[in-house]
Every structure is written in structure tokens, then in C-alpha cells.
Specification:
The chain is α+β, with helices and mostly antiparallel strands and 421 residues long. The protein folds into 2 domains: 205 residues, Enolpyruvate transferase domain (UDP-n-acetylglucosamine1-carboxyvinyl-transferase, Chain, Alpha-beta prism), CATH 3.65.10.10; 206 residues, UDP-n-acetylglucosamine1-carboxyvinyl-transferase, Chain. A 4-stranded mixed sheet has the order 21-22-1-23. The protein starts with a strand and ends in a 5-residue tail after the last strand. The protein binds uridine-diphosphate-N-acetylglucosamine. Uridine-diphosphate-N-acetylglucosamine binds next to α1, α5 and α6.
Length: 421
């Protein structure tokens, strides 16, 4: 059975190590295609989205082997052909293979990428930017064909700092002829990770961690070794779980420097935090305080990927909290499930959720409908009295190595349905 069973109402206590970041690992794995040499990617999370990316890389001819501490990718024998459709449709981040493959092969045929069902998720910004670099697109039997006779640098401006479009431009620009100047780039730390890997391969990129990136392309890139940073979203999920259950936890390796907006929110809910070189120590309040307003926005704003986890903690808040979702329109799907647990959530407009804090949540049978919302339901189950069963856990497996193990390390009573692994 595809489910997680939780006996809630226990304050989290103890220490857990935070896994490597999914959103950093995926574009870095795609970027290994830009060289003809083997790379070693350390701290790569063992999650189903990474496995899907690896099957795509293998279907293109890469040799991939896992070691205890990471994964070797050898792209020396890549055949420039069509991508396996099954993996692509299930994962939106297969989209960053577009930029990498157009750089390496000059031609890509792929299914329209999938991903979480959290909104329309168009790809117009990707297509427009790559188009200006000499890529032409056409649709053929429902598939996307991209071709570039001559991939060339360009002056580009993104009207919205799309993470995926920024990554695609960087990947294509690294092998394009000449210089690319990208204005309006996304600032998410995962962009820094992608640039970090490419720099270690010999790429020339200026302006990392700013909105203006300058990439001088056409250089030969070498295989390299790179360590994926810890996952700020996984760390944030565990942090809000603790805010809602009470207790004290140490999130080892949590990348606190990249989590300012999240930490400020947790503090405004009454958590006491101490950031140390190697992680975050958190002491939760007995009951979370209400927050005046949490508004998701591009980095360094509050991440949309943690909106559901914050919503779960705010559901127990001592008063009303307002949550504004500005990035993905369907991200309140978790609310429906949280209501089954006794949360009082009032949608007062598109992307506006007024949370009337209740004193306690109760266990229920709820269904994960997407990755981050699913993890938030597990967190809510920990906060609730009695038993919660979360179904649809294949979504959670996309981004969390082993959420049950991690919460058990923090003293929770959690078990996974037998047929999950
Ligand atoms: C990435 C993250 C995802 C996170 C999101 C926002 C990965 C693998 N996924 O997704 O976890 O929730 O950033 O931080 O890194 N948009 C367009 N046209 C486009 C592209 C995007 O309109 O061509 C819109 C989207 O519909 C959405 C917004 O821009 O409303 C943000 O999308 P984007 O930043 O591109 O997110 P992803 O890269 O898909």
C-alpha cells in the first residue's frame, strides 16, 4: 500500500541530517551532458526524480554508477537521439535537458514535460529565450522538436525570474558561440549550484547570485567533481513540522544562509532558532503563534515549495494567519485535505488563504496530490492527535529520500505502507 501511517501528537526531538537538494541535483545532472568526460556528483539525493533523470541520461547513452557518497556520470558515448517519453512526461525538470542537449547535440525531440499538478506551468519563457539563441521549435505529433544549426550567445531578459528558464539559458549558453547576457535571472540557490558545477568544469560565468549573468560560451568543458548542497526545502519541511508539534530539533547541514525568509517566518511563529556552522537548532513554542502574512515569491522571498508546510503549522496558530500564494495557482490543494484534519481554512480570493488557527488537529485519512503538499500532510499528521494515514506517497518519494526514517529519527511514530519500497 502506498501510504504513511502516523501516530501524531508527539513533540519532535533529536537530530536529523538533511539530504542533498533535489532542485540542485537535477540541473547539475543534466549539465553533466555538456562535457565528454566523467563527473562525480556527491551528495546526490536518492529520490525518484533523480532516478528518473538518471534513466533519461542512460537512455541517451550515459554510463551511470552509484557509489555510497554520490553518482558517476560518464557522458562520453551520448547518442544524440530522442528521449524516452515515459520519464519526460513524469518530470518537469527533464525540461533542463532541453538546454543541455541543444548545446551538446544541436537537436532535441522530447515530450512536453510533466511535473507536479500545481498550476498551468507553461514553458513560453524557456522557448522564447532559447529562440533568441538560434533554436527553432516545432511540434511534431505532440512532441517538441528543437533544433539549432548554430547556437549563439544573445542578450536576454526574462520578464519573470523563472528558475527553469534561467537554468536552460545557462546550460545552452555554456556551449553556445560567444557571450550570453541574461538579465532578470532567478536568484534561487539552485542556480548557484548549477553555476558552481559548470565553473568547476571550466565554464566562464560571471554574476553568480545576481540577476545579471554573463556566460562566455564555446569553451571546452571538463568532467569534474561537485557536491550537491543540502536541500533547503526538506530542511524547511522538518522545521515547520517541529514548529507545529513542539519540541527541539537539530537539522544537521540545513543550509540556513539560504533560508532567511523561512527562518523569519518560523521565528514569527514563536520558534527560537540558532544557526550554527553545520545546521539549524530549533526550539519550538508550545503552540505556534499566528503570522500576519506569509507571501510566496521568488527567492529571496518565502518559497512556494514551503507554503503547504507553513500552512499546516499556521493551522494550529494562536489566531488568524494570512497566506498569499503568488507563484503557482493550484498550490492550495493541500487545504482540502487539512480540513479533514480539523483545520479551519477559508479561501478569501485567488491565492489568498485565511487560516483560523485551531487548538488541535485530529488524525484522518488524507491524500497527497503533489510532492510538497504531500510532505506537508505528513507534517500535519505529526501535529495531529490520533492516527493519520497519508496516501499517494509516490509524490513524496519524488523529493524526500525517506521521510519516515527522518521523522522517526526525531522521535515520531511513523511507518510506511509495506509495498512502498
Ligand atoms: C522550480 C522548482 C520548483 C519551485 C519553482 C518556483 C525545480 C526542479 N523546480 O520550478 O520546485 O516550486 O521553481 O520556485 O527546480 N512560468 C511561466 N512560463 C515559463 C516558465 C515559468 O509562465 O516558461 C511561470 C510558472 O507557471 C510559475 C512561475 O513562472 O507560475 C515559476 O516557475 P519557475 O520558476 O519556472 O519554476 P520551475 O522551474 O518550474
Amino acid at each position: 500500500m502506498d501510504s504513511i501511517h502516523i501516530q501524531g501528537g508527539i513533540a519532535l526531538q533529536g537530530k536529523v541530517r538533511i539530504q542533498g537538494s533535489k532542485n540542485a541535483a537535477l540541473p547539475v545532472l543534466a549539465a553533466t551532458l555538456l562535457t565528454k568526460e566523467r563527473s562525480f556528483i556527491r551528495n546526490c539525493p536518492k529520490i525518484s526524480d533523480v532516478y528518473a533523470m538518471i534513466s533519461l541520461l542512460k537512455s541517451l547513452g550515459c554510463t551511470v554508477s552509484w557509489e555510497e557518497d554520490g553518482v558517476y556520470v560518464d557522458p562520453s558515448r551520448v547518442q544524440c537521439g530522442e528521449m524516452g517519453s515515459e520519464e519526460v512526461t513524469g518530470m518537469r525538470s527533464s525540461l533542463c535537458l532541453l538546454g543541455a542537449l541543444i548545446g551538446r547535440c544541436g537537436r532535441v525531440v522530447m515530450e512536453y514535460p510533466g511535473g507536479c499538478v500545481i498550476g498551468k506551468r507553461p514553458i513560453d519563457l524557456h522557448l522564447e529565450a532559447l529562440g533568441k539563441m538560434g533554436v527553432s521549435f516545432r511540434e511534431q505529433e505532440g512532441r517538441l522538436c528543437a533544433e539549432a544549426r548554430r547556437l549563439r550567445g544573445a542578450r536576454l531578459r526574462l520578464p519573470f525570474p523563472s528558475v527553469g528558464a534561467t537554468e536552460n539559458v545557462i546550460l545552452a549558453a555554456a556551449l553556445a558561440e560567444g557571450e550570453t547576457v541574461l538579465e532578470g535571472a532567478a536568484l534561487e540557490p539552485e542556480i548557484r549550484a548549477l553555476c558552481g558545477y559548470l565553473l568547476s568544469c571550466g565554464a566562464q560565468i560571471e554574476g553568480v547570485d545576481t540577476k545579471r549573468l554573463v556566460i562566455r560560451g564555446g569553451r571546452r568543458l571538463y568532467g569534474s567533481e561537485y557536491r550537491i548542497p543540502a536541500d533547503r526545502i526538506v530542511a524547511g519541511t522538518y522545521l515547520f513540522a517541529c514548529v507545529g508539534t513542539g519540541g527541539e530539533v537539530f537539522l544537521e547541514e540545513a543550509p540556513w544562509e539560504d533560508m532567511t525568509a523561512v527562518l523569519e517566518t518560523a521565528e514569527s511563529m514563536g520558534a527560537k532558532l540558532c544557526t550554527e556552522q553545520d545546521g539549524i537548532y530549533l526550539q519550538a513554542p508550545r503552540r505556534p503563534g499566528a503570522v500576519e502574512r506569509i507571501q510566496t515569491s521568488p527567492y529571496p522571498g518565502f518559497p512556494t515549495d514551503l507554503q503547504s508546510a507553513a500552512l499546516a503549522a499556521a493551522a494550529l496558530g494562536n489566531g488568524d494567519s494570512l497566506i498569499l500564494e503568488t507563484i503557482f495557482e493550484n498550490r492550495f490543494r493541500t487545504a482540502e485535505e487539512l480540513r479533514k484534519m480539523g483545520a479551519q481554512l477559508e479561501e478569501t480570493g485567488t491565492g489568498r488563504m485565511l487560516v483560523h488557527g485551531v487548538e488541535s488537529l485530529h488524525g484522518a485519512r488524507v491524500e497527497a496530490k503533489e510532492l510538497r503538499g504531500g510532505a506537508a500532510l505528513v507534517a500535519a499528521g505529526l501535529m495531529a492527535r490520533g492516527e493519520t494515514v497519508v496516501t499517494g506517497c509516490r509524490f513524496i518519494d519524488r523529493g524526500y529520500e525517506n521521510i519516515c526514517r527522518d521523522f522517526r529519527e526525531l522521535g515520531a511514530r511513523v511507518s510506511c505502507g509495506t509495498s512502498r519500497r
